[in-house]
Design goal:
Elements (H helix, E strand, L loop, with lengths): L7 H9 L3 H8 L3 H10 L1 H4 L4 E6 L5 E6 L4 E9 L20 E3 L6 E5 L3 H16 L5 E6 L13 E6 L5 H6 L9 E6 L16 E5 L6 H6 L4 E5 L4 H12 L9 E5 L8 H4 L6 E2 L5 E14 L8 E10 L1 E4 L6 E7 L2 E6 L4 E6 L3
Parallel strand pairs: 1-6, 3-5, 6-7, 7-8, 8-9, 9-10, 10-11
Antiparallel strand pairs: 1-2, 2-3, 4-5, 11-17, 12-15, 13-14, 13-18, 15-16, 16-17
Helix pairs in contact: 2-3
Protein name: F-box domain-containing protein
Pfam families: F-box
C-alpha cells in the first residue's frame, strides 16, 4: 500500500480528511495500517464519549461512535451466504470463518450471516475496544428488538426492552460479562422478577419501567446509588425500606429513590410515614429543594452537539428522616402516585421559601 510509504506528516493529513467509517475500513487492510491509524489518530479518539451498539427487531446491528467533533456510524444487515455473491472480507479482526461483506451499493453498511449474530457483535466490540484503546469511553448496548442482546465485556451502560416471556435467568445472562455497570434501564415486557442477588441490582444508576409486575424485590435488593422505578409497590415494602435505612441496617450506598406509579397505585403519606418519627424543617415557610443528576441513555440536546448522559431530577419537601447512628439526613415526599427519597449529602440542597 502506497500510503504506508508516505512521510508521517502526510499520512496524518490524509487521515484527518477521512471519516470514521473510512478509517475503520482502512484499518482492516493490515495490522500495520491499523497500528498506524491508532498512533496518528489518538487525538481524535480521546474525545470520544461513547460507542453504542443498537439492535432492532430485524436483527440489524447499528454501531454509533460519538463525540463533540466526531460522528461515526455504520450498520450491519442480516443475510445468508446464499443470498449474496459478494466476496467475504476479513474485517473487524475476524477471519473467513465469520464472513462479513460490504454492501454492494452503500458504503458503511455491511452484510453478515444472521446465524452468526452473536459472534459478529462480539468480534466488532472486541475490535473497537482495542482499536480506540481508551478506558474513558462509555460502551453502551441498546436493545429495542424482540430478542435479548448478547452479553459483552466492558459495557458500562445498557438499555433493554425485554421481550415477552423472558425468564429472570435469561435476562441475567445479558449482564454476566459486564456485572458492574454505571447505568442499566429495563423496559418492555418486564414482570419485576430478577435472579437472586442479580448483578442488575448492583448498577450505580438503575431505571425500571414495568407494567406487568411490582417493584418490591427490586427496591429491597438494590445495591446501587440511584433507583428510578415506574411501577407499583406495596405500602409494606416502602415502609420496610424506610425502616431499614433509618435504623442503619441497609441501603448504605443509596443516595436517591424515585417511584412513579401513576397508572396503577396511589400512596398516602399518613399511612406510610405514621410510625417513622418524621422531622420537619424549623420554619413553616421553608421547604428544601434537593436535586441530582440521574443517568440515562446517551442523547443530544437540540441546542448542542455534546452528548448528554444524565438529566436533572429532584423534588421539594419539608419532611426528612434522620438515620440512627451517624445522623445522616434524607428528605422524603410521598404524594399521590409518587414516592421521593434523597440524602442531603451527595445531592444539591437549596432552601426555598414557599411564599415566594
Amino acid at each position: 500500500m502506497k500510503l504506508l510509504k508516505l512521510p508521517s506528516l502526510v499520512q496524518q493529513n490524509v487521515f484527518e480528511f477521512l471519516e470514521f467509517k473510512q478509517l475503520l475500513f482502512l484499518s482492516s487492510c493490515s495490522k500495520r495500517t491499523r497500528y498506524l491509524i491508532q498512533s496518528l489518530q489518538k487525538r481524535r479518539w480521546k474525545d470520544i464519549k461513547f460507542v453504542k451498539y443498537s439492535f432492532d427487531e430485524n436483527d440489524k446491528i447499528c454501531v454509533s461512535v460519538r463525540s463533540e467533533f466526531l460522528i461515526g456510524f455504520f450498520s450491519l444487515s442480516p443475510t445468508t451466504l446464499e443470498q449474496s455473491v459478494i466476496t467475504p472480507m476479513e474485517v473487524f479482526g475476524m477471519g473467513p470463518e465469520i464472513p462479513i461483506r460490504l454492501h454492494p451499493k452503500y458504503f458503511g453498511i455491511y452484510l453478515y450471516n444472521r446465524k452468526q449474530k452473536h459472534l459478529v457483535v462480539q468480534g466488532i466490540h472486541d475490535y473497537l475496544y482495542e482499536f480506540f484503546g481508551s478506558s474513558s469511553i462509555d460502551y453502551e448496548v441498546e436493545s429495542t428488538e424482540n430478542k435479548l442482546p448478547p452479553s459483552l465485556k466492558n459495557i458500562s451502560r445498557t438499555c433493554i426492552k425485554v421481550p415477552g416471556n423472558t425468564t429472570a435467568e435469561e435476562l441475567e445472562a445479558c449482564f454476566t460479562a459486564s456485572p458492574n455497570q454505571d447505568y442499566i434501564e429495563i423496559n418492555g415486557h418486564f414482570n419485576g422478577i430478577l435472579s437472586t442477588n442479580s448483578v442488575i441490582l448492583g448498577a450505580e444508576h438503575l431505571t425500571v419501567i414495568s407494567n406487568e409486575g411490582h417493584g418490591d424485590e427490586i427496591l429491597l435488593g438494590f445495591r446501587g446509588k440511584r433507583l428510578n422505578c415506574d411501577c407499583p409497590f406495596h405500602d409494606a415494602t416502602i415502609v420496610q425500606f424506610l425502616n431499614e435505612w433509618k435504623s442503619n441496617k441497609g441501603f448504605h450506598n443509596l443516595e436517591s429513590l424515585e417511584i412513579n406509579s401513576y397508572t396503577s397505585k396511589k400512596y398516602y403519606d399518613v399511612m406510610v410515614l405514621k410510625d417513622m418519627d418524621v422531622k420537619q424543617l424549623d420554619r413553616p415557610q421553608d421547604t428544601l429543594r434537593i436535586t441530582w443528576q440521574m443517568s440515562r441513555s446517551y442523547t443530544f440536546p437540540i441546542t448542542s452537539f455534546v452528548p448528554v448522559k444524565s438529566f436533572k431530577s429532584g423534588f421539594s419537601s419539608r419532611d426528612y428522616l434522620i438515620k440512627d447512628g451517624d445522623g445522616e439526613k434524607a428528605s422524603v415526599l410521598i404524594e399521590d402516585h409518587y414516592v421521593h427519597f434523597a440524602l442531603w449529602n451527595g445531592n444539591s440542597c437549596e432552601m426555598e421559601n414557599i411564599n415566594d
